[in-house]
Write a structure and sequence with these properties.
Blueprint: H1 2-18, E1 25-31, E2 34-41, H2 44-49, H3 57-65, E3 68-73, H4 77-91, H5 94-98, E4 106-110, E5 118-121, E6 127-130, H6 133-146, H7 161-164, H8 179-200, H9 204-220, H10 224-255, E7 262-271, E8 274-284, E9 287-288, E10 294-297, H11 306-317, E11 328-332, H12 335-344, E12 351-355, E13 364-367, E14 374-375, H13 381-410
Parallel strand pairs: 7-11, 11-12
Antiparallel strand pairs: 1-2, 1-3, 4-5, 4-6, 7-8, 8-9, 8-10, 12-13, 13-14
Helix pairs in contact: 1-3, 9-10, 10-13, 11-12
Length: 411
């Protein structure tokens, strides 16, 4: 058996892994017609490659019985989470239970009351099993922004905080609730819960088709305000799944040393165009590489035009083909800075512009090739911290050079 394990992990499995996609999805170890183990991954190839290095005896036992691996790529990590749940429920693979105690599975259920509440439990119930509690919580957090539901434990006199930030209909938890408002809210609440059920059941496509039909019908009735509102909701649903994929891509690619090794960060410092400088910092393998830092004195602009200054710095940087090319470029700024950078950078290097606020709560990133910005807070913690580290180091380096020029000029 030991020899067979070695053959499976070192030979056949390795060959199968080489053909696996790098996107998010579900994988399935099979032994003939039996389904041995089903899992999900943000990067299928990377996750399957980890099985080549495992020393876990239970996993080795599963590999000794496996004769093949099947993969199904999904549009996002959220869809991978839901698809995995459906497959585990349908096929009941033996090793999913052996490798994970029943109490470690997550399920989603609804309370049986007038205004049902959505909650996560370890008890087998309506939706599940889900293997990743963090991903499940993130998914519900995304969905609640589009399809609000109540989480208040007791009725109260005034609208709750969740109502004011768009996560609750409000009327569902008020003590004094006008009958007319109550009926309208009840209809919307039921639609919201039904939509969440459809998505968690893997019926996202049918949900979108139903909403699109309803939108067209409202347009024919000339109820344009409702039609526009429904159109915005449809776009939000699509964006949630699209953003989920972008976020996991950034989290994976930013931290995966095989894909992203060298990150270059850029910032500009000046006082109304005077003593203007640009800075380039380099992070290799996730750490500052100060031998590779470069500073640029700005010559082309005397006014405080940061985008023009950035174009000058990047043009001069890419006139040095002898410098190693970056795998990722991070720029301090927003859409304007990203557009300026893309006019200079003609290669396929991914570019991110980071627009910060004081406490990073409203910070956003703009990504080359993507129309919509993404909140920095939605990124995986490690990826977010790395981007902030690169940005703050570029800012520190630019400011220190700017101050040095300023001090020299006033002596």
């Amino acid at each position: 058996m030991i020899q067979y394990i070695a053959n499976m992990t070192g030979g056949k499995l390795k060959k199968l892994i080489s053909k696996a996609p790098t996107g998010p999805g579900v994988y399935m170890f099979t032994g003939g017609r039996r389904k041995l183990y089903i899992g999900k991954a943000s990067n299928l190839k990377a996750r399957l490659s980890s099985y080549l290095k495992t020393t876990d005896q239970r996993i080795l036992q599963m590999l000794s019985l496996a004769t093949g691996v099947k993969t199904l790529e999904t549009g996002s990590e959220i869809e991978a989470l839901i698809t995995e749940s459906q497959y585990v429920k349908r096929y009941k693979p033996a090793f999913n239970i052996m490798l994970r105690d029943d109490k470690n599975f997550f399920y989603v259920d609804l309370t049986k009351e007038e205004w049902p509440k959505v909650f996560i439990t370890h008890r087998p119930t309506l939706f599940g099993p889900f293997t990743d509690g963090t991903a499940l919580k993130t998914t519900l957090r995304y969905l609640r922004r589009i399809f609000p539901y109540c989480t208040c434990k007791k009725p109260h006199n005034n609208f709750c905080l969740n109502y004011h930030i768009g996560k609750c209909f409000g009327f569902c938890c008020l003590k004094d609730n006008p009958e007319q408002s109550r009926r309208a809210a009840e209809i919307e609440y039921k639609r919201s819960i039904r939509a969440i059920k459809n998505i968690l059941s893997g019926k996202k496509t049918s949900l979108l088709k139903g909403l699109e039909k309803e939108m067209i019908a409202l347009g024919k009735k000339e109820e344009f305000e409702k039609a526009i509102e429904l159109k915005n909701k449809i776009e939000k649903i699509k964006r949630v799944f699209e953003n989920a994929k972008i976020i996991q891509d950034i989290g994976h690619k930013t931290l995966d040393k095989k894909n992203i090794y060298r990150i270059e960060g850029y910032d500009i410092a000046n006082i109304q165009g005077k003593y203007a400088v640009g800075a380039m910092v380099v992070f290799s393998n996730g750490k500052p590489d100060k031998n590779e830092y470069r500073k640029f004195k700005i010559y082309s602009k005397q006014s405080s035009d940061d985008t023009a200054m950035l174009k000058e710095v990047l043009t001069r940087r890419f006139n040095h083909p002898e410098w190693p090319m970056p795998d990722l470029i991070l720029i301090d700024g927003g859409k304007a800075q990203l557009s300026a950078a893309l006019k200079v950078i003609c290669t396929q290097i991914p570019v991110i512009a980071l627009a910060k606020d004081e406490k990073h709560r409203g910070s956003k990133i703009f990504i080359s090739g993507k129309k919509n910005s993404i909140s920095l807070s939605k990124l995986p913690t490690d990826a977010k911290n790395l981007l902030l580290h690169v940005d703050s180091e570029a800012h520190r380096f630019a400011i220190s050079y700017h101050r040095r020029l300023h001090r020299t000029a006033i002596k």
